[in-house]
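Long-time lurker, first post. I've been practising inverse folding by hand and with some scripts of my own, and I keep getting stuck on stretches where the C-alpha cells seem ambiguous. Below is the full C-alpha cell string for one chain I'm working on. Before anyone asks, I'm not after the true native sequence, just a reasonable design that respects the backbone. If someone could post their per-position residues I'd love to compare against what I wrote down in my notebook.
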C-alpha cells in the first residue's frame, strides 16, 4: 500500500485546532482526508456515525483493543474510550490521500512515536490560560465545572508542547491558519 503522510493537530480544548483542521481540509491541493475516531460514548446532538465518530459499544471497543486494531486509543473517562482504528488510516491511504487528525495530545504523540518519519505533529497553543477560559465560556456548551476540568487538563497538555514537531501560537486565527497551511504544504510535498 502506498503510504501517505499523517498530519496531527493537538491542543487543549478552545485553542482553535478544530477550526484550523477544517480550514486545511478545504484546501484541495493538500489532498487531505479527516481521520474519524472511534468512541464508546453516545452520539451528542446532531453527530453522525461515520462522519463525526464511529460510535461503537464498550464491548466492541474492548474487542478491537484486544485484537490490536487501534493505532492509538485511550480511556478518557471511566468506560469512555476514544481511538484511531488502523483500518481508518488504511482506508484513507488507499484513496491516495494524506490523513489529518484533530486529536488529543496523548493520542497525537502516540501516532508520532509509531510513524516518526510519516508524521507532522503540530501543537496549537492558545495565547494564555485566561484566554482559553474566555473562549470555552463563549461556546456556552458546557458547565463551569466542565470548563474548569478542561482548564486543569490544559495546563498539563501545554507542558507537552515541546514534544511536538511544530508549535503554532494561535493569537490571531487568520495568521494561525496561514502558518498551518504553509507547514502542511511543505510537509506533504517532501518525499
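-- Answer (accepted) --
I ran through it position by position. Result:
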Amino acid at each position: 500500500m502506498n503510504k501517505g503522510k499523517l498530519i496531527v493537530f493537538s491542543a487543549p480544548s478552545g485553542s482553535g485546532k478544530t477550526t484550523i483542521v477544517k480550514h486545511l481540509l478545504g484546501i484541495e491541493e493538500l489532498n487531505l482526508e479527516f481521520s474519524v475516531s472511534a468512541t464508546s460514548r453516545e452520539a451528542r446532538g446532531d453527530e453522525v456515525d461515520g462522519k463525526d465518530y464511529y460510535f461503537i459499544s464498550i464491548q466492541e471497543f474492548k474487542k478491537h483493543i484486544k485484537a490490536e486494531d487501534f493505532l492509538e486509543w485511550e480511556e478518557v473517562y471511566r468506560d469512555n474510550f476514544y481511538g484511531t482504528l488502523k483500518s481508518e488510516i488504511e482506508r484513507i491511504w488507499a484513496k491516495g490521500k494524506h490523513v489529518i487528525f484533530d486529536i488529543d495530545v496523548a493520542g497525537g504523540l502516540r501516532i508520532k512515536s509509531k510513524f516518526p518519519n510519516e508524521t507532522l505533529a503540530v501543537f496549537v497553543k492558545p495565547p494564555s490560560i485566561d484566554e482559553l477560559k474566555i473562549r470555552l465560556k463563549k461556546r456556552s456548551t458546557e458547565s463551569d465545572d466542565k470548563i474548569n476540568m478542561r482548564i486543569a487538563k490544559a495546563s498539563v497538555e501545554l507542558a507537552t508542547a515541546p514534544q511536538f514537531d511544530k508549535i503554532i501560537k494561535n493569537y490571531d486565527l487568520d495568521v494561525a491558519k496561514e502558518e498551518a497551511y504553509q507547514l502542511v504544504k511543505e510537509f506533504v510535498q517532501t518525499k
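A couple of notes from the structure itself: The mean pLDDT is 90. The longest helix spans residues 173-189. Happy to go over any region you disagree with.
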